[in-house]
């Protein structure tokens, strides 16, 4: 491989990684603030449980905006190219995040505060809805034969890196500031720092060229007028099964992050900083699971690996409550096991969904499947889990996770029964 080709490959993989890292950093700082900050600052005081549920409801809004972002950015990604669309998605997410850091609170402007927060959260969802699919395609459509899953895992690594960065900055602020300063202005720092990260991401992405697969689609006049209509009309089955195939991934992650943090720092009385550190330790196993699963997927196929991971998630759901409620050691074991299972399912999911759709509608199709799975699996997961734990006990949260894994397994088996449907999509 020539030095020029090597440099180009590194630039592509770094661009796919840096973009999703920024996007997930922005997304996770909201998730953390939705538990630790927003219930106090953006909603009426008097009922802490109600404020937390209202805050988690604004957290859910982004997941309903993400399929809209998939359709909008997917249209342009499939019509005019991956590069320009990825730049626009990054700007949408970044500007929405910075705006959150500048919002006045409920004490200043009353009911307008949570409304503006909801608008910014919708902007985050639109941006991430367009970001993920484009980043996966940027990597997989530049991959050599036999390495699609390995290349496709680079944007997936943005999730654990973004989580560690977002959690780390909240821990630093918690250590450096007292509660009064943190709630007065310190919580705004992560949102405002996002502007610097976005600038780095834009600099890298503006230096990219189009992917070879998209260039061939243009040369062969394969582009369609309305990609979303084509996906809904001609690839309905793939879209539905792909959505359910990714559902357990979302349920698991947001139970391990948002719900676990909320429940541990309230019902289980863990200090905020202690549990954030425990989560960071667990996320290291998330990061380890992603490249391991990518290697296995290139050898055995992404669906086979995700099937195995889904079985592991189902079994993990049955141990979720005893481990989380079993003191610090049990909770740490729960976090490590759960995040490792998350890495096993998350590493190949981008390649698996991209392989379901032909080049002309791949940006739209893969993005829609992933983000519709976000609605089913993540948007209300912290809310549902909190309600289940409060009304029926923590064990029901684990049953909820096991049920989601069962649905995902059935969808994956449905995809496996029709391998001929995937042959055309996996061709270059």
Automatic annotation (TrEMBL):
InterPro entries: MFS_dom, MFS_sugar_transport-like, MFS_trans_sf. Its main location: membrane. The chain crosses the membrane at residues 12-31, 51-74, 86-109, 115-138, 150-176, 182-204, 239-263, 275-293, 305-325, 331-356, 368-388, 394-415. Keywords: Cell membrane, Membrane, Transmembrane, Transmembrane helix, Transport. The keyword Membrane applies. Residues 12-420 form the Major facilitator superfamily (MFS) profile domain. It comes from the Bacteria. PROSITE patterns: MFS. It is found in: Cell membrane. It is a multi-pass membrane protein. It holds the Pfam family Sugar_tr. This is MHS family MFS transporter. It comes from Tahibacter amnicola.
